[in-house]
Amino acid sequence: MNGSHLDRVRQVADQLAARSPGSKITIRKATPSHSIRDPSYKAAGHPVDVSGLCNILCIDVEARRAMVEGQVLIGDLSKATLTHGLVPAVVPEFRKFTIAGLINGEGIQSSSHRHGLFTHTVQSMEVLLASGQTIEVSTSAHVDLFAALPESLGTLGIITAATIDLVPARPYVEITYRRFTSLRAYLDAFRESLGQTAFHEGVIFGARMQVLITGEFVDQPGAHRLVTEVPGAPYFYQRARSVAAASRAVTHEVMQTLSYLSRSERGMWWLMECHADFPLLSETRWGRRYMDKVAAATYDRSGFASRDLTTLERDRCLVTQDIGVTLERLGDGVEWVQQHLGVYPIWNCAARLSENTRNRVGTSHLVDIGVYGEPMVDGYQHIRDMRALQRMADSPSLWGVSYLPWEEITSANPARYARYEQARQTYGADGAFMHLKDKVVWVDPDQPDRGKIPFWRLHRSFGRRWYLNPAVYPLFVVAQISKLVWRSKP
Q1: How far apart are CA 26 and CA 36, in angstroms?
Q2: Which whole number is the average pLDDT over 47-61?
Q3: Could you tell me which of 245, 296, 241 has the C-alpha nearest to residue 268?
Q4: For domain 3-168, is the CATH number 3.30.465.10?
Q5: What does each C-alpha distance from 342 to 247, 376, 385 come to in angstroms?
Q6: Is 374 helix (H, G, I), strand (E, B) or coil?
Q7: In terms of CB atoms within 10 Å, which end of the chain has fewer, N or C?
Q8: Handedness of CA 67, 69, 72, 74 (dihedral sign)
Q9: Angle 359-365-370 (CA atoms, 0-180°, nearest 5)?
């Protein structure tokens, strides 16, 4: 660690020392929040600004590791390491994810089938405790804290630096799309191809359209089509859908590596299309350019938090959930989502488990079923159906809204939460940092459970009395006509 880094850490420690007794530490940073919770809950806390911890300290090419400060962006790290022919082993798709945020909140991506979750690629961390003491944690030092930090949502300490595994990379990624019309055939291919390529994921676009997407690093595009990310260009999932729909054969294309690593950022998976439900925007070049501009400004201003709907209003109309199921239960999980929610597309991304975990749970991979979109089944009730979804999961995520009470969450993995509670006591986080259960968005299962808001997009855009605004009606007509002209669902 160089002197400048130590000075920056000392400045953060000085802010901790100024905390008044009884106040809870809350983090302030320069990048957008990736929590969906309204950040106003932090107002009563003691603010600690960590935005200065944004430097790459060392890239060790021979050891294939990078030492970085906690607020370094994964996109900046990927760009810097690629100049050395390396990239982080797991690169979640939003370039403004910070290293500390990925540790505190966990991260997964299409290389996880080989390397596991993002935290599985972290060799060590420097952590600033509430006392102002800085310690190094790893698999050989302060092992209990090292194990408790992943998905602790910043409630144990401040991650000031981390050492991250890198893997060899090349300038381009060759992407292979394989279309299936049978869920069973898709699931067989999904399982059989794990570990065979650098990148691996699946997208289910409809009951008879599943696409397995794999990728390999290459030096040159070769004979395959080179896709470039220019303003207004189709989003990655739109290309995947159109390529697969146009041909039943295996199809290839090539992207620059950095563009591939952030391929789902534009369009935010497919949520922007779902939010707009307006093909005149999402299916045209000028429309996508406009949506990208608006989305970027909104994201920089408020991150993933919704400013136009309350948590309950949003969840009455949209599902934003990541649930983990064992590889053997992937088919059951997908069929459950299809039957009970009717949300498409559905993302599948496998994470390789450590040997100890594999022996304990009896499976090689945990698969993230990403459910992002509008439920289209009749009679959808968000509290009832989201509780059922999370109960169906082998590993419900704490990132989104939780419909399971704290007691039910902890009983599913008592060893993990006992480790967390012990770490809070041992390292002085209790009483200084918020508790994990204070950071999650919880929904009371006993409150009234209502269906979707009629015309919720108009409600979101124009307010509760949208029907009194004369501009709504011509807009509504144009939207319906554009659906007839452009879009047909698989």
Answers
A1: 16
A2: 97
A3: 296
A4: yes
A5: 25, 5, 12
A6: coil
A7: N
A8: positive
A9: 145
Q: Domain residues of the chain, as ranges?
A: 3-168, 172-266, 311-442, 459-485
pLDDT of residue 460: 86
Burial class (CB within 10 angstroms; exposed 0-12, middle 13-18, buried 19+) of 406: middle
- What is the chain's Cα-based Rg? 23
CA distance 20 to 11: 17
Residue with tokens 């983990």: 324
Closest Cα partner for 12 from 101, 134, 164, 102? Answer: 134
Confidence band (pLDDT; 50, 70, 90) for 488? low
Amino acid 69: pLDDT: 98
- In this structure, what DSSP letter does residue 468 have? G
CA distances from 38 to 33, 233, 293, 299 (A): 10, 32, 22, 13
* CA–CA distance, 411 with 421 (Å, rounded to integer): 14
Stretch 404-414: mean pLDDT, rounded?
90
Structure tokens at 279: 């093909």
Residue 402 φ/ψ, nearest 5 degrees: -100, 125
User: In the beta sheet, which residues pair with residue 352?
Assistant: 365
Most confident stretch, 233-247, 255-269, 464-478: 255-269
Strand partners for 203 = 211, 347
* Main-chain dihedrals φ then ψ at residue 86, nearest 5 degrees: -140, 155
Average pLDDT of the segment spanning 70-78: 98
Q: What is the pLDDT of residues 302-345, one digit of tens each?
A: 777 777 788 888 889 999 999 999 999 999 999 999 999 999 99
Angstrom distance (rounded) from CA 469 to CA 474:
11
Sign of CA dihedral 160, 164, 170, 172: negative
- Are 110 and 90 spatial neighbours (Cβ–Cβ below 8 Å)? no
Q: Which of 44, 42, 81 is nearest to 63 (CA)?
A: 81
CA dist., res. 99 & res. 80, Å (int) = 14
Instruction: Output the CA torsion sign for 186, 191, 193, 194.
Output: positive
Mean pLDDT, the chain, rounded, equals 92
**Which ranges constitute the DSSP H helices of 40-157?**
74-82, 99-105, 112-115, 143-148
For the ranges 15-19, 274-278, 435-439, the one whose mean pLDDT is highest: 15-19
